[in-house]
Design brief:
The mean pLDDT is 86. By secondary structure, the chain is of the alpha/beta class. A hairpin with a 4-residue loop joins strand 1 (4-12) and strand 2. The chain contains 13 helices and 15 strands. Strands 2-1-4-5-6-7 form a 6-stranded antiparallel beta sheet, sandwiched between helices. A 5-stranded parallel beta sheet has the order 10-13-14-3-15, with helices on both faces. A two-stranded antiparallel sheet has the order 8-9. Helix 6 runs antiparallel to helix 8.
């Protein structure tokens, strides 16, 4: 099933200029007398319009560019238009839909082409993603700037997949690989990584178990935990009661201490008064005083002596009383202090006993928790071993499936290498320029001018292989820009152009852009020669826009 392009139209909407190129369904040569007339822009626009990202030159990137392409596929006529990243699709003249992104358009192309290529991305999780449209056209396209390199870089934004993945995409076109292959290949790798992770985890569990078990063996659990719990509860009650008693004794001790300090102060004051000398006072011999008790009359001088005697006697009595109270309080303080110290020692003993009981109980609790942890670790090890066995069995089944894919791939590659060998001979390329185990899409590191010829041989060998082993799958036009790159001499350039324009192994449409090769093309029947004669660096013209203005306006309204 071949996709055949009949025409491509490019429109500069801002300046209202356009260019349309018609193609033959067979062989086409796009040429000009000079460079910079727009051949490469036309070639890039073919697959750009079909959703691929290309390396446009800067002046084209600045344009408000609308491109649309007309092609036939499976007895239907299609038109696809692209404006930036929005696409519209027509089938047999009827509007089929507008697609506002490349991803949405890719879903439609997958249905239209009957082809879907999923590959594993380069992200850490290895996500399987649908390939962009460029992967449909990659085996068929060589652009001027990057297509002739050792690896295939004709399209932009393809580096989300590594080179092995990109090479695998060629085998989707050959019908050898499919999305199931990608899925089970990823599953095998995921299984292997998970097996290694589970093994590492299991080893860690075993190391921890060994350490914990050694600690358990050193602990002798020979006590009654119920009695120990009761003893701890009782000791806590006793400590609480003792703390209350200590608090009361401390309060009594402080009160007695305060009283003793007060007594000592009173005693000190009395002592000062007792020791103080009473000053002599002058008395009158004529004055008398009557005793209130006995009625006797005394002289004033005798009165003063009596008062002094009474005062000293009273002070001595008070001092004696205070000394007695001091002795009592000192004995009370000593007794309370001894009681306080005894209860403090008892509290210390209780707390020490409680700590010991708690340590024993905690050891029991810890051992119980450790035993539970060991049980859980052993269960996890068992689960890991079961999961490892399951993953290994799954990988065994996957390997059986992959063997069949590998056999088909080897068979397809054998056919490809046979086709490639014949083409290398026809293009005058020594066999040692290509590795023996080369595959479609492999890098071709050939010396000098052999490189471009190897790339042409690689493409033609691929489409011949596809035609032989998967004739019902879709194929696309072979689009090759500037095969005269890397200073091909005239003889070998003629050989390349002749090989392309006389290709009859498959019925793929072939479009070649070259400033040389017109003389060869005119001598080959059925070659459509398109010669550009516009001014340099100005591909579009107003007259062509006017010619297709109604068509362009209708398309533009769909965006």
């Amino acid at each position: 099933m071949n996709l055949i392009i009949s025409a491509i139209t490019m429109v500069d909407l801002t300046n209202k200029e356009a260019k349309r190129i018609y193609f033959s369904p067979d062989k086409n040569l796009l040429t000009s007398e000079h460079n910079h007339l727009g051949k490469s822009v036309i070639m890039k626009s073919i697959y750009y319009t079909l959703g691929a990202e290309v390396y446009y030159p800067h002046p084209i990137k600045k344009l408000n560019l609308l491109t649309y392409i007309d092609f036939s596929l499976d007895s239907h006529q299609y038109r696809i238009a692209r404006l930036k990243n929005t696409f519209v699709l027509y089938c047999d003249g009827s509007f089929c839909g507008r697609f506002p992104s490349v991803n949405e358009f890719d879903n439609e192309l997958s249905k239209l082409f009957g082809l879907e290529i999923n590959l594993v991305g380069k992200d850490q999780e290895g996500t399987i993603v649908r390939c962009p449209p460029a992967f449909y056209y990659m085996p068929y396209y060589i652009d001027q700037e990057n297509g002739w390199a050792a690896n295939s870089f004709s399209f932009d934004r393809m580096t989300q997949f590594d080179m092995p993945q990109r090479k695998s995409s060629y085998f989707f076109h050959l019908g050898v690989l499919d999305n199931r292959y990608v899925e089970i290949s990823k599953r095998q790798k995921t299984n292997s990584r998970q097996i290694n992770t589970l093994k590492t985890e299991t080893e860690k569990y075993r190391t921890v178990i060994e350490t914990l078990q050694a600690g358990l063996n050193a602990v002798q659990m020979s006590f009654d935990t119920a009695s120990l719990e009761r003893a701890i509860a009782l000791r806590q009650v006793e400590i609480k009661q003792l703390l209350g008693e200590i608090s009361k004794v401390r309060s009594d001790l402080l009160e007695a201490g305060d009283q003793l300090v007060q007594i000592l102060h009173e005693k000190e004051v009395l002592s000062k008064y007792i020791k103080k000398k009473i000053p002599k006072t002058e008395s009158s011999t004529n004055e008398t005083i009557e005793c209130p008790r006995c009625g006797m009359v005394f002289e004033q001088a005798l009165r003063q002596k009596l008062e002094k005697a009474y005062l000293l006697e009273s002070l001595h009595d008070d001092y004696t009383s205070v000394s007695g109270r001091q002795a009592q309080l000192e004995r009370k303080v000593t007794k309370l202090q001894r009681k306080f110290d005894d209860k403090q020692h008892t509290l210390a003993d209780y707390e020490k006993s409680l700590v010991s009981d708690r340590e024993s109980y905690n050891a029991y609790v810890k051992s119980k928790a450790t035993n539970q942890m060991l049980k859980e670790y052993w269960e996890q090890i068992g689960h890991n071993n079961e999961e490892i066995d399951r993953l290994k069995k799954d990988n065994v089944n996957i390997r059986k499936l992959l063997v069949s894919y590998a056999q088909e791939r080897d068979q397809a590659n054998t056919i490809y290498l046979n086709n490639l060998e014949k083409l290398l001979i026809g293009l005058d390329i020594p066999s040692d320029q290509v590795e023996e185990n080369s595959e479609p899409g492999s890098a071709l590191i050939a010396s000098g001018a052999y490189g471009p010829r190897c790339k042409v041989a690689q493409i033609l060998a691929f489409i011949e292989t596809q035609h032989r082993i998967s004739p019902d799958l879709i194929t696309f036009p072979v689009v090759i820009d500037s095969p005269n790159i890397l200073e091909q001499d005239n003889e070998h350039l003629d050989t390349v152009i002749r090989s392309l324009l006389m290709w009859d192994k498959t019925d793929n449409q072939i479009i070649v852009a070259s400033i040389q090769g017109r003389d060869i093309a005119t001598k080959i029947d059925g070659v459509n020669i398109v010669t550009l004669s516009n001014p340099q660096n100005h591909l579009f013209c107003p007259s062509e826009y006017a010619m297709y203005e109604v068509e362009i306006a209708e398309l533009f309204t769909q965006f």
